Amino acid sequence: MVFNSLSFLVFLAVCLGLHHLPLSWRARKTNLLVASSLFYAAWNPLFLPLLWYAITLDWFLARAIASAPTQGRKKALLVVSLVSNLGLLAFFKYGPFLSDNANAFFQALGVPLVVPRVDVVLPVAISFYTFESLAYTLDVYRGDEKPWSSFLDFSLFLTFFPHLVAGPIVRPHDFLPQCAEERRATPPQLLWGLLLLVLGVFEKTVIADGLLAPLVDTVFAPGAAPNVWEAWSAALAFSGQIFCDFAGYSLCAIGVALCFGFHLPDNFQSPYASLGFSDFWRRWHISLSSWLRDYLYIALGGNRKGPVSTQVNLMLTMLLGGLWHGASWTFVVWGGLHGLFLVAERLLRPSLEKQRWTRGPVGRLAGVAVTFVCVCFAWVFFRAPDFSTAFTVVRAMVGFTGAQAGGLLSRLDMVLAVLAVGALLALQWRYRDEPLPKMFESVPWWASAGAVTAMLVALVTATGVDRAFIYFQF
Hints:
Blueprint: H1 6-19, H2 25-41, H3 48-67, H4 71-109, H5 126-142, H6 151-159, H7 161-164, H8 172-175, H9 187-219, H10 228-259, H11 277-283, H12 286-300, H13 307-325, H14 329-353, H15 361-383, H16 387-397, H17 411-430, H18 436-441, H19 445-461
């Protein structure tokens, strides 16, 4: 059951109907909790107990941490939470990856030892709800939050179906206080929530899936031999695809939550108009980058122990952030590239800031262009199924192609992809620091109405392969 399916629309209509019945607030929260559990069970009911295990464990551990008489006992209880949550994540998400790499390591050393490989199905959303649950126990351990008094509220916080499957990664202090008072969307909130849902599904279905994905799949197919134009077209297309797919999901999640009167944090803010890589990570997947900053980078020491330690902490954070996305060395390389970008930016920033031209419009535009090109280059390793494919695309991007390269894409496909991504970049530059509501308010009502009508028509008439949201696999 996904946001771009008819079954979800029926599910949402039933949930909204129940939410607007004249019931107590506790009863309506219970309805949402049951609906969210059913939503998760629709993916695979066998993994529902795993989700509820995380809920129950961290609920009681957080209360025990808060009441523990000594710091040593608090730390021991926190370790139980970390080992349990991260251990399950490692087993399900990284078990085969770790065993394969261990066996390769032993084979290289000539050690006759084989680690059994256990192939398991990855539970949907485990990366997201694990980080949300850990944020709760870590906040309680650090004294930033007190244990919440209602188990119902805490359960709803982790299971709330709009953000359950692929984020945004919601913090306890952002969601739990909203459970304390009765919530029901006002007519303007309901209208805006449905509009965000339409916009998100349009980005996903029409732009990401219909326009860009076929081109990307062709160039990144194993054995494909693109020329330089096809490789760059595919890199640009994937930059648009991954944004419209994931930002589209986030818009859907925020919009659906708003239909029930709940507010979720923004997850994207014009990331392709970023001036530098630090700026990019303040705008891309904001809920994950802020989580990594607060619970990993700062925990490692942040920038408190000198420049060398700062660079090491940045690299470790980005490498682990890359690994969070998937059990593959290509994701680690993607994270490592962003770590190198961040380190280089820190080293070069003092000298660049002394140059007058960098502070003018031309310098800012050049900074945005360099940032975007480097981000597109790194996306190759994120998208490629293996290093062989990634290096084939990279070699083509820098002009090293064979005599038989090319012939994968038509000129029309490449032009349409470049125009679509160009329009996306122009919009992000124009509304770089403005929230989405202001974007709609800045144009005449008839233009907004016409745009929404066009999106609805495009959704109704859209044809093509139904694709899961990309971040479902993480």
